[in-house]
Design goal:
alpha+beta, 4-stranded antiparallel sheet, 3-stranded antiparallel sheet, Aminopeptidase, about 30% helix, single chain
């Protein structure tokens, strides 16, 4: 498996991964919905490699997972918003590549980049019942808030 930086050309793949993240339990959403929903769009609109965090996992030359972080303004927060200087992560792995360590490798890679850039923390939202919670807890994320059926989790960089 290789982990590489996300590039602008990856945005259509990031859309697929966002759909996987939204549909973690069953097929509740469609790609058309992801492309038109204002809340979902904020995780992709204006994605800028180099400014935003972003990594893609490759298996045998094919993209199978991705993680990226967006800093969002207070007046336009995401589901896992903590502060405007804390990127909110989206992480997903295609079904055929799950349970192979892809999510763990992507998480470690994005944390490493955040440390290098001296980003104060990373946040995310995880719905109740999502098995990815164990991955986040193992990486050091802790619950800092609750919104409906989801927890907002935060990893403070430099505290681990």
């Amino acid at each position: 498996m290789q982990i590489r930086d996300a590039i602008a050309h990856d945005v259509p793949f990031l859309e697929q991964i966002l759909l996987e993240a939204y549909n973690w339990s069953d097929q509740r959403f469609t790609l058309d919905w992801i492309r038109t929903d204002k809340m979902a769009r904020r995780y992709l609109e204006g994605f800028t490699p180099g400014d935003d965090l972003g990594m893609v996992a490759m298996l045998d030359g094919t993209a199978v997972g991705a993680v990226w972080g967006r800093t969002l303004p207070t007046e336009r927060p995401g589901y896992g918003f903590v502060a405007p200087d804390i990127p909110e992560l989206t992480l997903g792995v295609l079904p055929r590549a799950r349970r192979q360590g892809v999510g763990s490798r992507l998480t470690a890679a994005v944390i490493s980049i955040a440390e290098q850039r001296r980003i104060p923390g990373l946040s995310l939202s995880v719905e109740d019942g999502n098995a990815a919670r164990r991955l986040y807890e193992k990486a050091g994320f802790t619950v800092v808030g609750r919104n409906g059926g989801s927890d907002t989790m935060l990893l403070r960089i430099g505290d681990n």
